[in-house]
Amino acid sequence: MLKFFCKSFGQLSLKEAHDLFELRSEVFVLEQKCVYQDIDGEDPNAHHILGKDSSNKIVAYARILPKGKPYASFVAIGRLVVSQKIRGNKHGHNLVKKSIEEAFKLDNRTPIKISAQAHLTSFYNKHGFILDGKEYIEDGISHIAMILKS
Questions:
Q1: DSSP characters for 81-150?
Q2: Residue 62 phi, psi (nearest 5)
Q3: pTM of the full predicted structure?
Q4: Are 91 and 85 contacting, i.e. CB atoms less than 8 angstroms apart?
Q5: pLDDT at 139 (0 to 100)
């Protein structure tokens, strides 16, 4: 069972910051073979959802960006990631639920927008997200915008 925490950038310990960047790199860069600028300057503006296992290791993660960063009319949830070692146990669904819950706590009047990897649209549909536009390539991977209204 994972325990989830929501922290601002300033509340993260040095170890937590290290571990979340390590997890993002492990999955997005190494596993998905996607070379991109992960540290994009937005982490200080974000709230960070940390999913920790029983040994206090971050094995699931997402970040929430406020309205205006990067979308003028939406709160953004991004960098959703679950360690390959624990996939298939509903942890991704729990991460999305916690991310939505925390995003609406931070701003309950603004809809949420995500840039979903296209092969995960049915996964996000289960959480109420609907397609918004056509597929596009982002960092060499097919994505599509999806929205969840408050």
A1: EE-GGGTTSSHHHHHHHHHHHHHHHH-TTS-EEEEEEGGGHHHHHTTT-EE-S--EEETTEEEEEEEE--
A2: -155, 160
A3: 0.94
A4: no
A5: 86
**Cα–Cα distance between 140 and 32 in angstroms, integer?**
10
CATH code of the domain containing 39: 3.40.630.30
Lookup: tokens for 102? 């925390």
Write out residues in the chain with pLDDT < 50, as ranges.
none
The closest of 64, 61, 68 to 26, measured between CA atoms, is: 61
Three-state secondary structure call for residue 57: coil
Conformation bin of residue 26: beta by default, left when phi > 0, alpha when psi is -120 to 50: alpha
Residue 16 DSSP SS3: helix
Range of the domain at 85: 3-148
pLDDT digits (tens, 9 = 90+) for 101-137: 999 999 999 999 999 999 999 999 999 999 999 999 9
Q: How many domains does the chain have?
A: 1
122 burial type by CB count under 10 A (0-12 exposed, 13-18 middle, 19+ buried): exposed
Phi, psi of 47 (to 5 degrees): -100, 140
Rounded CA-CA distance 84/126 in Å is 21
